[in-house]
Write a structure and sequence with these properties.
Helix content: 25-40%
Strand order of the largest sheet: 7-6-16-17-18-15-19
CATH superfamily of the domain at 3-37 and 62-71 and 203-281 and 389-438: FAD/NAD(P)-binding domain
Distance between the termini: 12 Å
Shape: globular
Length: about 450
């Protein structure tokens, strides 16, 4: 039996890692000329930056062990705070009571406390959407300050139209109890919040996947090989065709492709109802503005979040605060994230227009001084996040039901499974899937 994996992003490489570990014959096909998918580390002059504000959290012992074994002393333990920029003030994230007391109006603080005390009596039943979940767990005032506005900017939809689990576990412990525990120093070290202590490779997050590539072996990874056809008889996948018309017979296929692309390359095509359903799925795209700055540091934070609508971006991260190897000693670089739709003006405007737009907002809001900008570039990140709205659950049930009808086709990855997954999740899922397929 052999294994063919479509895509050499984090999910595909995780499958390749465990397949190689079990000595299973495998081949990974990647359309681009490099591995890592949306988790690459790129160079911009003397600077390095990741294609996302990636961090490796110690949430799964097996996954952590794998990454440590691959990177050894190249893996750093980092403890760098993040902030929320709101109403011209920097607020600690995760939230801390002393910082909130000094940053927020006392009447607002009182509302937060009262709402959280009354929450157990105010809401009943399971939340029906993200807004309900936020209000139930954090109270309306705290939610509107730091959750609802940020979420709606990130996803481009009203919070009541989004699935309650759209943020995964990233905001799980953002509530009054966690704030008090954090203040008293009794919060668990590995508590599942968005930030805190994390692991990070010395030379950028992409080093994890370059190390996986080395472990898997270059002969098992075929770059510049776009899959243009997945052939089937209605029950099994029989072969894969590449852009050079090469046809490869297969016994097991793992796809990490976004669901819409997967459906498009099935030969013959699925039934019309499946094609129609896939067209209803939405992905959030990201455009990055990368600016090198003539200053030692822009901030002392891993990331800064911008929930207010006056900012077109949702987050700024500074690679040098993850590892000093990411920028020269006396200079720094920031990466500005702008959520987009695939067909909107921001995603499709030219490089100069986009960068002028970003710089104007940064300068006009007093975040940087024009004279400190050395250079800039931009980058598009397609299929960054699957958009889980209130219609997607039933649609996905139909699509995944159809895909499960093939006895040798398996999906893994954010865009393939339409789930918000992190590297540690993907490693865990890959290990499980390899065990199921080959035990």
């Amino acid at each position: 039996m052999n294994l063919h994996v479509i895509g050499a992003g984090p999910a595909g490489l995780a499958m390749g890692y465990y397949a190689k570990k079990k000595k299973i014959p495998l081949q990974i096909f990647e359309a681009s000329d490099s591995v890592g998918g949306n988790c690459k580390t790129l160079e911009f002059g003397n600077y390095k930056f990741d294609t996302g504000a990636h961090r490796f959290h110690n949430k799964n012992k097996e996954a952590t062990s794998v990454v440590k074994s691959l990177l050894k002393d190249e893996l750093l333990k980092v403890n760098v705070p993040s902030k929320i920029y709101s109403k011209n003030k920097m607020i600690n994230f995760p939230l801390e009571l002393p910082n909130l007391i000094s940053s927020l109006d006392k009447s607002i603080l009182l509302k937060v406390v009262i709402e959280n005390l009354l929450n157990p009596f105010s809401y009943s039943g399971a939340p029906k959407n993200f807004r309900d979940l936020a209000y139930n767990n954090y109270g309306k005032t705290l939610s509107e300050l730091f959750l609802i506005n940020y979420t709606e900017k990130l996803w481009g939809k009203a919070a009541h139209l989004l699935e309650e689990d759209i943020a995964g576990n990233r905001l799980k412990n953002l509530n009054l109890i966690s704030i008090i525990k954090s203040t008293l120093g009794i919060q668990k070290e590995d508590s599942e919040h968005l930030d805190g202590a994390f692991y990070y490779p010395k030379n950028g997050y992409g080093a994890i996947f370059e190390a996986m590539k080395k472990y898997i072996g270059k002969d098992n990874i075929q770059l510049k090989s776009k899959v243009t056809g997945i052939h089937h008889d209605g029950n099994s996948i029989s072969g894969i065709s590449l852009d050079d018309n090469q046809l490869i017979n297969t016994s097991n296929v793992i796809s990490t492709l976004p669901l819409n692309i997967l459906i498009d390359v099935l030969k013959p095509l699925p039934p019309k109802n499946i094609i129609d359903d896939v067209k209803k799925l939405q992905f959030r795209f990201i455009r990055l503005g990368i600016l090198s700055l003539d200053m030692k540091y822009f901030s002392n934070n891993a990331s800064i979040y911008f929930p207010e609508k006056k900012f077109p971006f949702t987050r700024i991260y500074e690679p040098k605060n993850r590892s000093k190897m990411m920028a020269p000693k006396d200079k720094t670089c920031i990466v500005v994230e702008v959520p987009c739709e695939e067909n909107d003006a921001i995603y499709n405007c030219n490089n100069d227009e986009f960068l002028s737009f970003i710089k104007f907002s940064l300068i006009n809001n007093g975040l940087i001084n024009k004279k400190n900008i050395i250079n800039s570039t931009s980058l598009k990140i397609p299929y960054a996040y699957p958009l889980l709205d209130k219609n997607s659950k039933n649609i996905l049930r139909n699509i995944h039901g159809f895909i499960k009808s093939f006895d040798n086709l398996c999906l893994i990855g954010r865009s393939a499974q339409f789930k918000y997954l992190h590297t540690h999740d993907l490693l865990f899922e890959a290990k499980c899937k390899i065990s199921q397929l080959f035990n």
